[in-house]
């Protein structure tokens, strides 16, 4: 393995999400087989997320040309709208992973992307526009782009900025991503491209998560040595089993600095299911993931965005929204927690963290 010109060998590393940001990148929803009723309800939710984050940092929203005027007219003037074509709106996964250098340089990682599983198991086809987004952003910002030999989405990883990365076996070891790579090889590439020194492997992501168990829906770092974990009290619920598996790993793990982890439990909403009217407004295409009435959704309050001065969390269930908001307010005492109605985003298969990507300040 040639590591001569990898980011880590040049001194770059990935900062934690709770480190200072320069900006936040998003994409505009319009895909009719993902977002119901021509994506109009989803666009309203995306606008609300962008407005909340813009209290904290610059927000840039990438838009396909045919939706440019619509997006520009819906978004406030202080939110930047740029023409940046995509196949769908999951900026966390199709956008760049930014890395920084102690000398003040910013660069980005261009992972391989196969729409969460490739031609047989991926969520849609084609994904050619998504593959070009990272290259375009590197050109727009005038920064170096490192092409990584690894299929990986941004939602599959969380880092503490001090050498530790957390992920799931269900996703990164899935044969639909990197079938010829061992766990050791994948760890080595993560070290070389993100500047980390330790990987904590959780067994599985949230129940029925269509991304094959992205960690950002299950668990995330909220500070060095501290993580938030999706929690279900019901031991008979499949999510309850998954959460307990993860808790066992986390309680027995140490981070790259040798610290034991403190685990903060966030209750799951629901369970939440797709209603008849929510499924009826979608285009049904053979090339995309079906969304049917009665399907359980992988709702999670862990899928929040940490901004410079705000934490933007999804509002998903009135029975649990307040409890989740109180927990996050305790975890982030210097930031304002903003809840945004986010069921429309969940109906598309993800949530607030999935549709955002932070650009760190250097």
Automatic annotation (TrEMBL):
SUPFAM superfamilies: Pentein
Protein origin, superkingdom: Bacteria
Keywords tagged on the record: Hydrolase
GO molecular function terms attached to this record: agmatine deiminase activity; protein-arginine deiminase activity
Biological process according to GO: putrescine biosynthetic process
Active-site residue numbers: 354
InterPro entries associated with the record: Agmatine_deiminase, Peptidyl-Arg-deiminase_porph
Catalytic activity: agmatine + H2O = N-carbamoylputrescine + NH4(+)
NCBIfam families: agmatine_aguA, PRK13551.1
Protein name (Swiss-Prot/TrEMBL): Putative agmatine deiminase
């Amino acid at each position: 393995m040639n590591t001569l010109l990898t980011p880590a060998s040049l001194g770059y590393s990935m900062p934690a999400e709770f480190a200072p940001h320069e900006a936040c990148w998003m994409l505009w929803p319009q895909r009719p087989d993902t977002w119901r009723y021509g994506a109009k309800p989803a666009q309203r939710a995306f606008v609300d997320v962008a407005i909340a984050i813009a209290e904290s940092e610059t927000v840039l929203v990438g838009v396909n040309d045919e939706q440019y005027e619509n997006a520009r007219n819906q978004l406030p003037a202080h939110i930047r709208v740029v023409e940046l074509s995509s196949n769908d709106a999951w900026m966390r996964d199709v956008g760049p992973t930014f890395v920084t250098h102690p000398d003040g340089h910013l660069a980005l990682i261009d992972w391989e992307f196969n729409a969460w599983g490739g031609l047989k198991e991926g969520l849609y086809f084609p994904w050619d526009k998504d593959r070009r987004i990272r290259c375009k952003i590197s050109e727009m910002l005038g920064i170096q782009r490192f092409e990584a030999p690894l299929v990986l989405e941004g939602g599959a990883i969380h880092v503490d900025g001090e050498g530790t990365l957390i992920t799931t076996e269900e996703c990164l070891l899935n044969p639909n991503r990197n079938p010829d790579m061992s766990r050791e090889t994948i760890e080595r590439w993560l070290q070389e491209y993100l500047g980390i020194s330790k990987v904590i492997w959780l067994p599985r992501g949230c129940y029925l998560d269509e991304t094959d168990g992205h960690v950002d829906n299950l668990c995330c770092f909220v500070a060095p040595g501290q993580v938030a974990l999706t929690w279900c009290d019901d031991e008979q619920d499949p999510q309850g089993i998954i959460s307990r598996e993860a808790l066992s790993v986390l309680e027995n793990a140490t981070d790259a600095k040798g610290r034991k982890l403190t685990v903060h439990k966030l209750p799951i909403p629901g369970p939440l299911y797709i209603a008849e009217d929510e499924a009826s407004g979608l285009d049904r295409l053979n090339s995309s993931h079906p969304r049917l009435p009665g399907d359980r959704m992988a709702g999670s309050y862990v899928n929040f965005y940490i901004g410079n001065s705000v934490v933007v969390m999804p509002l998903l269930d009135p029975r649990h929204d307040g409890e989740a908001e109180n927990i996050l307010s305790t975890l982030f005492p210097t930031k304002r927690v903003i809840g945004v109605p986010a069921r429309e985003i969940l109906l598309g298969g993800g949530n607030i963290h999935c549709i955002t990507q932070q650009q760190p300040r250097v």
